[in-house]
Design brief:
7 strands, alpha+beta, 92 residues
Length: 92
């Protein structure tokens, strides 16, 4: 789920940790302006991803995704680390 809508996409994994997502198909429910903004930001970040790294913060695995410029665009963790410096603003 991205906000209150569901989405589906395909991805391609290449060599050297390359990762690409196709533009997702989503349901079209209106969820309120704030949630809709977050959904759009998430999808915009997802389609920018070109590379990923597995990392560790506070002994917890972290999946970090980067755009073409090497900027962190998405970060996923099973639980938030106490030091969240790796988390982009959308995830804080």
């Amino acid at each position: 789920m991205a906000g209150c809508n569901s989405y589906v996409t395909t991805y391609t994994i290449g060599s050297a940790n390359q990762l690409y997502f196709d533009y997702p198909s989503t349901t079209k429910a209106y969820c309120g302006d704030s949630i809709m903004k977050t959904e759009h930001e998430f999808i915009d970040a997802l389609i920018q991803v070109v590379r990923y790294e597995m990392s560790e913060v506070d002994s917890k695995p972290i999946l970090v995704m980067f755009n073409q410029s090497g900027e962190v665009v998405l970060t996923f963790a099973s639980e938030l680390p106490t030091n969240n410096i790796f988390l982009p603003a959308i995830m804080r």
